[in-house]
Design a protein that fits this description.
Helix 2 packs across helix 9. The strands form 2 sheets. This protein has a 6-stranded parallel beta sheet, with helices on both faces. Strands 5-6 form a two-stranded antiparallel sheet. The relative contact order is 0.16. Helix 4 links the parallel strand 3 and strand 4. The protein has 9 helices and 8 strands. The radius of gyration is 23 Å and the shape is globular. The protein has one domain: Rossmann fold (3-Layer(aba) Sandwich). 37% of the residues lie in helices and 14% in strands. The protein is an alpha/beta fold.
Length: 266
């Protein structure tokens, strides 16, 4: 039979257990994220993702490339793809970055692919978010629609340094307020970045962890081809965002989803 002493001991043990704090949920290991924006955008487009990553203890850098956003005063015909590649490489150098999760959105896939040729040893994970993954020798002009090529050549013929801003509706943003927010912040895209061929030797495929995220609500045949190629390669991870979940600017449409993926693949 259980004695009164045993009952009191059991009750005391139960009470002590109840007072113990609940086990803390495991938090992602703090990492360094470098977020590179796409055409017409700037570091501002990552603000929602950056705030969430920072709140989780990560270090986050989201620079604006030369000639865009807070650096739009530097827009000129002298800006080339090499300029934007140097923006990223210099950020790694002067911020002394290592073990970086490097994220590219849209056009950002061009300078990120080029920068990896110089900072490969400092990158532990690369993520292409609805982004270009050019091959050696390609130009932005080569992968563009006929309408874009005509507009770009016309801008060059007029001696213009920047390509006009498109309506934010082109990016399939789900919320009208977000579309207005994006429209108010976009600035002309330097024309020269689409005219220079990229020089690659395969560094991109040597990154230890590689991820491609596709948002098919935004029609882009090149992105569909990248997704298919990455899905067939076991060294890559792939994610597809449902059309009702996010458009092309997924960092604006679905920041929580993007953050979950980034922390998962970091």
């Amino acid at each position: 039979m259980t004695s009164r002493r045993d009952l009191f001991a059991s009750a005391a043990a139960g009470a002590a257990t109840a007072l113990l704090p609940a086990p803390a949920q495991a938090q992602p290991r703090p990492r360094t994220f470098v977020l590179i924006h796409g055409a017409w955008h700037g570091g501002w487009c990552w603000s929602r993702v950056a705030a969430r990553l920072s709140a989780h203890g990560h270090r986050v850098l989201a620079p604006s490339l030369t000639g865009l956003a807070d650096r739009s005063h530097l827009l000129s015909t002298a800006i080339t793809l090499d300029t934007h590649i140097a923006d990223i490489v210099n950020l790694f150098t002067w911020e002394d970055l290592h073990e970086v999760v490097l994220v590219a959105h849209s056009y950002g896939g061009w300078p990120v692919s080029g920068a990896l040729e110089k900072v490969l040893s400092r990158v532990s994970s690369v993520v292409f978010l609805d982004a270009f993954m050019p091959a050696d020798g390609e130009r932005g002009l080569d992968l563009s629609s006929e309408q874009f090529q005509v507009a770009l050549r016309a801008a060059v013929a007029r001696g213009e340094a920047g390509r006009p801003v498109p309506p934010a509706s082109a990016f399939r943003l789900r919320d009208a307020g977000d579309a207005a927010w994006v429209t108010a912040r976009m600035t002309p895209q330097p024309v020269g970045v689409a005219l220079q061929p990229i020089h690659l030797t395969g560094a991109r495929d040597k990154v230890p962890r590689k991820t491609y995220i596709r948002a098919p609500a935004y029609p882009q045949p090149s992105f569909d081809a990248y997704l298919a190629r990455c899905a067939a390669d076991p060294t890559w991870r792939t994610f597809v965002l449902a059309p009702e979940e996010a458009g092309h600017d997924a960092m604006v449409d679905a920041p929580d989803r993007v953050v979950r993926i980034l922390e998962d693949v970091a």
